[in-house]
Amino acid sequence: MKRVETPTEVLQVEIERINDKGFGYAHYVHPPKQGSQGKHLHLNIPYTVPGDVVEVTVPNASGRKKATRDYDALIKPSPMRNLTIPHDDRVISGTPLIYMNYQEQLKYKENLVKQFLTDKGFDSSVVSPIVGMENPNRYRNKMELTFGSNNTLGMHQQGNYRNVIDMKDSYIAPETMIDVKQIIQSWQLRHHIPGYEKESRTGVLRHLLMRQSFTTNELMIVIYATVSPDAYTDAIGELKQLLLERFSQLASLQWIVNVTSFERLHADNKYLLHGREYIMDQLNGFDYRIWPDTFFQANPVQAEKMVQIAMEMANVQADMRILDLYCGVGTFSLPLAKTCSELAGIEIVESSIVSARRNASDNAIGNTTFFVNDAKNGLRTLNEDWGMPDMLLINPPRSGAGGKVMRAIGRLGTEKVIYVSCSPKSLADDLVSLLPFGYRLKQVVPVDQFPHTNHVECVVLMSKDAPTE
Question: What is the pLDDT of residue 7?
Fold first, then answer.
């Protein structure tokens, strides 16, 4: 039977809400045909705001149930829309909420946290007002860009990971990083060094990583490539000279060979072209050594606020013993250890534990013990190797800790659990697992760690109800 293609349609739709990926969502119902009801079409439209009325072209519209499409024209802007932002993919990449007025972004994220908690049966009245930023622009101390096979250098297009948008500027990147990007891209084009093409696995340049401390001002530049720098000795010598002449704060310039993995920060071989392998950074008055693969909070202004909120919730006493689960390099460990009796940290990434130990030493903190282990097994062996903590802080990845780890925390039985979350959905899922162990949700403080994106962080206090007499 010959398939009948339905025609492309141009539709006018109103954006109802923002979905969890930052797309505007619209629902369109086709006019009913004789003897049948109208078909429903669910549309995800990037860079729109609730209340926008947009025109969108949808191929085979009446033959599909859902589609993700860019809009063709803004027919009527929402009252929430920031009309001062030009529509230029080379500037807005990585910022799906950039067209939403900042105060509306904060309301959206606070309501998102409340909704996920309510859906799991929690009382949303414990959610405090979200902690926003006075200046929500150029806040990132780290940027990872991708070299495209068509000489682009930027971020992946929202909804189309294969397409790299050539970044001209950014609302979230410091101007120094924009300057670095422009110099390296001009150098690449001048020397005809091809970007990496994933499907054919050909090309040379894969990723550009930039880190800059907002306190020490030290700058790190790392190029990930498929060949050693020996293949481009003269060109790399020129690049080094250009960067040193332009950036006196350049403390680390590295070339990392990544052949065997698609992971952005994977290293098969490392070549230090200038300076040292790390830069020095500070957070809440503590010194940290930051390597290319170090997980460190990307928004230091808001990260300091999160640490302070966690410290207030913890109400640390001098005789307390504290466990930091998923401790990383010690972002929360060091401030907690400064005021408690003893602190243990558990982290599965061995290089992070090495860094955490070194960071504790650099800051003259001697009451810490750090273990390399996964969360579940680390909790099981904790009593044998270290003892019972009085309080536990958990800061898992975006996917959350999972039911098995949360139940292990419940069985451990510490009176107080502080959960630092980067996903309200996984947060709500995880917190449910603590309820059978007598824990209750006491306080939730949302923090806008990543303005203009759909992400929101939370600092949460769970504690056991006092036993009734």
Answer: 76
